[in-house]
Write a structure and sequence with these properties.
6-stranded antiparallel beta sheet, globular, about 10% helix, 7-stranded antiparallel beta sheet, mainly beta
Length: about 700
């Protein structure tokens, strides 16, 4: 139940809920998803003072009077700043982009998150009125209060995970790629690959533990129409940048018919079976409804597009950075601009309209914790619905309100082949270890953690192969080593115009001059004076830029997203794997010029440009091709020499090799692979 603030006459009995947090004023405890956090003293008192007046400014003078006795000398400004910084640290909040506590410069602070207030049972009885007027008022107001209390209890009951009955409907080991209720609202259609088998379509129901294979191998279920037509997606190793091929086929059989290409997401309008599409185009994703009519565009990417039950609105999640699940839930009506219904989430994926209301349900994490189930109204009123032990992904909602979701165990793992070692070495650190760069001598690995363990701001790490040590560099997104190996380049998760250098020895971090670009990633040219960056101007499409440090960026390529790049040792040329699957070379001294196509018999993505004018390349096959092959391509002759196959030692649940990097001395290969294990559940609200 939304609340205006704590009742100051009784707030010692109250519990305040906001986001994933719960503030128990009586116990002086702040809990996150039931786990007590270390917040005491002035930071805790500051939080209580702010939630007493949510949405209102609490001035610094008011906080001085409330938190510090008048007869005690204290450096107030320093003490208050320390308290607010500690509070933000515990909440995972940011002064620049606040989710909970907003700063008003030289004035005070404001608590901006929606809150809910619960009064423990029996608290009202302990505050018995002692005057006749109060008794009369109580008699008059009793029916009203009873209604409010009942409404409050209902509101809290519907948001508690314990009020959901979860029934598991899949029981094998593997990944669920997509799932929807069948048109009858009872059957469940889903795509999965079990026990390292091929990806295919299955049919099951909550009343039976059996799943029946329907075929359609290597296709993924995207949507189901009211008339029983299936939208299926085929995709290969270029899927993250070019999208896949969309087909339609009747549920009761037949051959899939290709209808659209370069598709990232799709959904059917239930009124007229019209498709809404997210299409990958030059350096952007665009939302089309109906197909061919562009209603929204972004240089990032969009997922989970869903058409409202009446067909008048579309909801989707917009992600600003490619290959990153950080995103914002948005809604759009044809003829109007898209608008955000929520703030940006650290991890967001899985969305559906509730068929009995105009609410949008989705699964997301505000702070890097496992995704849980939320709902938001078209007016922006946000509320947590349920959470489970693990990561939840919403798949669909049936006409009667039953929810189809998966519990997913997801991990991005990292391993290395090192010259002189017979077996691959596991370098995985936490739960989402993404390699960013390898030092020139091949002995240090730069990576970041952007999963649950990495937190909402992500964390950059450095691993030394010589002694096996791993050290924390700082917050942000890992990008590259400096050419001299003395510093690392990082990006900011919340302000993508900012790049920072963290020294690996003595010294202070340094912020690079702003260029006006919003960065996806950047890496150094060999001379250390310029960066190669995949970036965009605000509101513009992605492309590769040459960015002199402190100078003006120049566009190297036309608009487009690239999967792999390699810079020549002299820094004069850049090889790329383009969105249309071509190996191309661009000259740095001709920004904006046409690239040269390198003729190859199959798609090859560059990993490293060697001193003998060859490219170390990755063979780009199916998205799920494991292992992947690494070869040497002589640019002068076109000769292709196989070097080795790269893949994990344990294949269970591994669905893709997402990245391969080779050190400049070719002695170390580091690669990422994603492991996902899923279980499908049907959840009923209020069932016992």
């Amino acid at each position: 139940m939304p609340a205006s603030g704590l009742d100051e006459t009784a707030d010692s009995r109250q519990v305040v809920r906001f986001g994933v947090f719960e503030l128990d004023v009586r116990a002086s405890e702040l809990r996150k998803q039931g786990v007590k956090l270390k917040l005491q003293g002035k930071p805790l008192q500051l939080l209580i003072a702010l939630v007493r007046r949510p949405g209102s400014v609490v001035t610094r003078d008011e906080l001085r009077r409330q938190l510090w006795a008048s007869d005690v000398f204290v450096d107030f400004d320093s003490s208050l700043n320390t308290a607010i910084n500690r509070l933000r640290f515990v909440l995972g909040d940011s002064a620049e982009t606040p989710r909970y506590v907003e700063t008003l410069a030289r004035t005070g602070y404001r608590f901006i998150a929606p809150i809910e207030i619960a009064v423990p049972r029996g608290a009202a009885a302990e505050r018995a009125p002692n005057r006749r007027g109060a008794r009369v008022a109580a008699i008059v107001l009793a029916p009203v209060l009873l209604v409010l209390v009942v409404a409050t209890l209902v509101a809290f009951r519907t948001s508690r995970p314990s009020d959901f009955r979860f029934k598991q409907v899949t029981f094998r080991r593997g990944q669920v790629w997509g799932a929807r209720f069948a048109p009858d609202g009872e059957g469940i259609l889903y795509t999965a690959n079990w026990d390292n088998g091929p990806r295919q379509l299955f049919l099951t129901s909550p009343t039976s533990p059996e799943s029946r294979a329907l075929g359609f191998e290597e296709l993924r279920l995207v949507a189901v129409s009211r008339t029983g037509e299936l939208a299926l997606m085929a995709f290969d190793g270029t899927m993250p940048i070019t999208g896949g091929t969309l087909s339609r086929v009747p549920m009761n059989g037949g051959a899939p018919k290709v209808i659209e290409r370069n598709i990232m997401a799709a959904d059917w309008a239930q009124q007229n079976d019209q498709l809404a599409l997210v299409r990958a185009v030059e350096g952007a994703n665009q939302l089309e409804f109906p197909p061919g009519t562009v209603i929204h565009k972004t240089s990032g990417w969009m997922s989970g597009v869903r058409v409202s039950p009446r067909g008048e609105r579309l909801a989707f999640i917009e992600h600003p950075v490619r290959h990153d699940n950080r995103g914002t839930l948005k809604v759009i009506e044809p003829g109007r601009a898209a608008r955000a219904l929520t703030r940006e989430w650290a991890n967001a994926g899985g969305i559906a309209w509730h068929p009995q209301t105009s609410d949008i349900w989705f699964t997301a994490s505000p702070d890097g914790s496992p995704k849980s189930l939320w709902k938001v109204t078209l007016g922006g009123d946000l509320r947590q619905v349920a959470s489970i032990a693990g990561t939840m992904t919403l798949r669909d909602i049936a006409p009667d309100g039953r929810t189809l979701a998966s519990r997913d165990t997801q991990q991005l793992e990292m391993a290395a082949f090192i010259e002189g070692e017979s077996a691959q070495r596991n370098l995985t650190w936490l739960d989402w270890s993404r390699v960013a760069d390898i030092s020139p001598n091949g002995r240090m690995v730069l990576f970041d953690e952007s999963g649950v363990a990495g937190g909402s701001q992500y964390t950059v790490y450095l691993h030394r192969l010589d002694d096996g040590s791993t050290v924390r560099v700082g917050p942000g997104v890992a990008m590259a080593f400096s050419p001299d190996g003395r510093a690392v380049l990082t990006g900011d998760t919340e302000n993508r115009t900012r790049l920072r250098l963290f020294p690996l020895g003595d010294g202070k971090q340094q912020e690079l001059p702003l260029s006006g670009l919003e960065y996806q990633w950047a890496r150094y040219f060999p001379d250390g004076k310029s960066l190669l960056a995949l970036a965009s101007e605000p509101g513009g499409p992605l492309r590769l830029y040459v960015q002199p440090i402190g100078g003006r960026p120049a566009a190297l390529t036309p608009p487009g997203t690239v999967r792999n790049t390699a810079i020549s040792p002299d820094g004069t040329q850049v090889a790329i794997f383009s969105a249309d699957g071509k190996l191309m070379v661009y000259r740095v001294d001709r920004p904006g010029g046409a690239g040269r196509v390198v003729a190859t018999r199959e798609p090859l993505a560059p990993l490293l440009w060697t001193a003998d004018d060859s490219l170390i390349v990755q063979h780009v096959g199916a998205y799920t091709q494991i292992p992947t092959r690494i070869s040497r391509l002589e640019l002068a002759s076109g000769t292709l020499e196989p070097l080795r196959d790269v893949g994990p030692a344990d294949l269970l649940g591994v669905n893709a090799i997402t990245k391969v990097m080779v050190s400049s001395n070719q002695r170390t290969i580091v690669f990422n692979y994603r492991r996902v294990l899923s279980e499908l559940f049907v959840a009923e609200l209020g069932a016992r």
